[in-house]
Design brief:
By secondary structure, this protein is α+β, with helices and mostly antiparallel strands. 33% of the residues lie in helices and 26% in strands. The protein has helices spanning 37-61, 72-77, 150-154, 156-178; strands at 17-25, 29-32, 80-89, 95-101, 114-120, 130-136, 141-143. Strands 1, 2, 3, 4, 5, 6 and 7 form a seven-stranded antiparallel sheet that branches. Helix 1 crosses helix 4. It is elongated, with a radius of gyration of 24 Å. It starts with 16 loop residues before the first strand and ends with a helix.
């Protein structure tokens, strides 16, 4: 085996809390959040009921402006978020790799910073744990990376429209049950 091509493999930490020194912030890459089709179909169906009512009201008032709506394919694709692999070294000299999902301020984390990380397993044994919270012991900052979620991807207008549609359907069902 060629010794020059061998690199020491980083470990995936097994504990929930890891205190270590940042060795390297690697280049980030995008990863997509999966959107479950059943959830999307229910939200769009409920929003469609309210949308139909809104179109009827708009037609009655003859307001000609339409709204740009995203397609089912675009909504199903899901939002992307930034994944930044981070290499760390603990006090015993062991190298670790973790993933930072989302964004942090550019000046928040630097190589040689001493950090305490709260980690969560990603469910895939090939993926390193992801960071939930960072306490930068060097600067005293508490950091929480934020990523896009399914609900932020769908957006408040669509979710409000879906809630209104669900209420309309529930009211209609209640009225027919009383008859």
């Amino acid at each position: 085996m060629d010794a020059t091509s061998y690199s020491r493999r980083s470990l995936h930490p097994t504990g929930r809390i890891l205190t270590a020194q940042v060795v390297r912030l690697q280049d980030g890459y995008p990863r997509e959040i999966r959107v479950g089709q059943p959830v999307l179909v229910v939200v769009l169906a409920a929003a469609g009921v309210a949308g139909l009512l809104a179109r009827l009201v708009r037609a009655a008032l003859s307001a000609g402006s339409g709204t740009g709506r995203r397609s089912f394919k675009d909504l199903k694709k899901g939002p992307e978020y930034l994944v930044t692999p981070i290499r760390l070294r603990d006090a015993n000299g062991r190298a670790y790799e973790v993933e930072l999902h989302g964004h942090l301020p550019q000046s928040a984390l630097h190589p040689a910073d001493q950090v305490q990380l709260t980690l969560r397993d990603q469910g895939d044994p090939d993926l390193p744990p992801k960071i939930e919270r960072i306490v930068n012991l060097t600067t005293g900052q508490l950091l929480r990376p934020r990523t896009a979620t399914l609900w932020s991807h769908l957006g408040p207008p669509l979710l409000l429209q879906a809630a209104l549609g669900a209420l309309l359907l529930a009211g209609l069902a209640a009225c027919t049950a009383l008859s």
